[in-house]
């Protein structure tokens, strides 16, 4: 096991960020309340570890993460529900970029070498990421999302 992650973070008790990411994905399948943070978890993880992502989707993921940081989880969930409804029932209208238009495109020249908060720093107690409650888990995901947006924006400076 390596002790350094692609995002610049050091390994935590569970390993590097991918170990935490897989643990989150597994746990949220059994916990609908935890699953509410699925979109920001995926966006932040892939933006911090772009070698595991499809490059063509990173810009949209960066914009979604900015929306989440700017307007909160409920706004992001509303946009996601709008996309699902728009693409459901045989409609082929495609992805609606309008809700994400106000947000900056993904900066070129990334990824940043390091982020101030990463997945390997998430608390994991009693076999769970939500042992301290869902609100605390949400605050940790918010900090990772903020650090991810901040890290990418720093490339513009």
What order do the helices and strands come in, and which of them pair?
Layout: H1 17-29, H2 32-35, H3 38-48, H4 55-71, H5 73-87, H6 134-153
Helix pairs in contact: 1-3, 3-4, 3-6, 4-5, 4-6
What does this structure look like?
- This protein has one domain.
- By secondary structure, the chain is an all-alpha fold.
- The chain is globular and about 40 Å long.
- Helix 1 runs antiparallel to helix 3, helix 3 runs parallel beside helix 6 and helix 4 crosses helix 5.
- Helices cover 51% and strands 0% of the residues.
Summary?
It is built from six helices and no strands. It has 157 residues and is an all-alpha fold.
Relevant terms:
6 helices; globular; 157 residues; DUF5946; mainly alpha
Q: How many domains, as an integer?
A: 1
Count of DSSP-assigned helices:
6
Radius of gyration: 16 Å
Q: What ranges have pLDDT less than 50 throughout 5 or more consecutive residues?
A: none
Query: Which structural class best describes the helix and strand composition?
Result: mainly alpha
Instruction: Report the count of strand segments.
Output: 0
What percentage of the residues does DSSP assign to strands (E)? under 5%
Kindly state the percentage of residues in helix: 40-55%
Largest sheet: none
Separation, N- and C-terminal Cα atoms: 35 Å
Mean pLDDT: 90
> What string gives the helices and strands in order?
HHHHHH
What global shape is seen? Answer: globular
Pfam family, one: DUF5946
């Amino acid at each position: 096991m390596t002790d350094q992650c692609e995002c610049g973070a050091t390994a935590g008790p569970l390993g590097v960020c991918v170990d935490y990411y897989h643990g989150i994905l597994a746990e949220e399948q059994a916990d609908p309340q935890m699953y509410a943070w699925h979109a920001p978890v995926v966006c932040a993880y892939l933006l911090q570890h772009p070698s595991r992502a499809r490059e063509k989707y990173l810009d949209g993921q960066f914009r979604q993460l900015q929306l989440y940081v700017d307007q909160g989880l409920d706004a992001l969930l509303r946009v996601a529900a709008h996309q699902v409804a728009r693409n459901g029932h045989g409609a082929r209208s495609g992805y609606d970029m309008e809700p994400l238009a106000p947000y900056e495109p993904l900066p070129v020249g990334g990824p940043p070498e390091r982020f101030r908060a990463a997945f390997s720093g998430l608390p994991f107690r009693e076999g769970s990421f939500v042992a301290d409650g869902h609100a605390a888990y949400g605050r940790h995901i918010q900090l990772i999302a903020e650090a991810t947006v901040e890290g990418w924006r720093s490339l513009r400076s």
